[in-house]
Amino acid sequence: AKIIAAGIGSARMEELKRSVLQFRESTEETFTFPAELISEERKYIHGLVKEYGLYSRSSGKGENRAITISK
User: Fold this and answer.
1) If I label 65, which of 3, 31, 33, 41 is the partner at 20 to 30 A Cα–Cα?
2) 4-28 burial code (b ≥16 CB/10 A, e <16)
3) Closest CA to 67 of 21, 44, 34, 40
């Protein structure tokens, strides 16, 4: 299933996807993306993570909101 993310350029989508795939192949149990991500980027990551059989959760409020992914 191809995930479409409004408001995110294709280069940024590839960069986020690469980060998720690198995490999936790593030995790390969790990875937290920087809080600077916009809501569309977090939404896109939630979709990617689900597609790759991983887990995700957002925490924090406003400009401190961040997404953590886990295996």
Assistant:
1) 3
2) ebeebeeebbeebbeebeebbeeee
3) 34
Number of H helices, E strands in the chain: 2, 3
CA-based nearest residue to 47, from 61, 8, 60, 62: 8
* The two three-digit tokens of residue 12, written as one number: 């940024």
DSSP letter at 2 equals P
Q: Cα–Cα distance between 20 and 43 in angstroms, integer?
A: 13
pTM here is: 0.88
Q: What is the dihedral of CA 7, 8, 10, 11, to 10 degrees?
A: 150
